[in-house]
Amino acid sequence: MENSRKISKLEYALIGTVVFCFLYFILWRIFKEKMPLHEHLDHIYKNYDSYAERVIILLPLALVVVTALLLMRPTPAKRFLRLQNSIPTSKIKSLAKGLVEIEGTLIMKDQMISPVNHEICIGYYYTIEDIEKDDNNRESYTTTHRETRCKVFQMKDDTGMIEVQPEGIELIFLEKTNISSNGNKRYTETLLKDGQKMLLVGYADGKDGVPFIRKDEHYKVLGITSASGINVWNTYQPLLRSFLFTCSIILLIIIYLLLQ
After folding, report:
1. What DSSP assignment string belongs to 42-76?
2. DSSP 3-state of 91
3. Can you tell me the distance from the alpha carbon of 162 to that of 84, in angstroms, rounded to the nearest whole number?
4. How far apart are the first and last CA of the chain?
5. Contact 122, 190 (CB under 8 A)
């Protein structure tokens, strides 16, 4: 049986725009001068080749702009990576109140049972996806549900231990732990487990003289990721940024030369 896929708001907007433009063009061809913007449309219609050439040339620039806007859109992962790259890693014993980064081993306090493989864990990120197949039997996935749940846990380094209040925590760039499929659904989970070595960015606070870490309300960040994975990211991220910047400059130069 063929699966039905939910259409996003952006897809509805694009379809609506295309339909509106098509109907408006038909009405303009029928009523001509009676339609608004008649003079502009008439000029475009009579100089179609010239406008088409400009569109073909400017289309790559539009794609670059749209891609840049999407990349600049703030997300929890981007905020985490930006802050992680700008603040030093602190030892737990010497934490000061405020935004901090710590690296250490996870210590379980209260256990949870994961939804896919029913494993004991500290917390998890869980998704449900619809599976769709094209005419070539290639699968694509559309996320219909996602959730993050986590119990209070501790982190330990060689200087001490501190509790983490996990409300609002984000699991950043962690590998999927378990994947299961059932019919046209796929279920995945990413687990936080006792003994894992992780890096965490959050707000160091205290209550009744007892320190703990919670979500930073100013930067909207409480993120955790693999200590080894973030080292790889910090090594190669500047090279990737330089490559993308160089490609953008070359593309802009090519577009400029074509417009001359």
Report:
1. HHHHHTHHHHHHHHHHHHHHHHHHHHHHHHHS--H
2. coil
3. 19
4. 54
5. no
Please name every residue paired with 148 in a beta bridge, in sequence order, or none if there are none.
Answer: 125
- b/e per residue, 138-177, with b = 16+ CB within 10 A? eeeeeeeeeebebeebbbebeeeebbbbbebbbbbebeeb
pLDDT in tens, the chain (260 residues): 333 344 556 667 778 887 887 787 787 677 777 777 777 777 776 776 666 666 665 666 666 666 666 655 667 787 888 888 889 999 999 999 999 999 999 999 999 999 999 999 999 999 999 999 887 888 889 999 999 999 999 999 999 999 999 999 999 989 999 999 988 999 999 999 999 999 999 999 999 989 999 999 999 999 999 988 776 666 666 666 677 678 777 766 766 666 56
Residue ranges covered by each domain of the chain: 77-240
Residue in 133, 132, 110, 113 with CA at minimum distance from that of residue 178: 113
CATH architecture of 77-240: Beta Barrel (2.40)
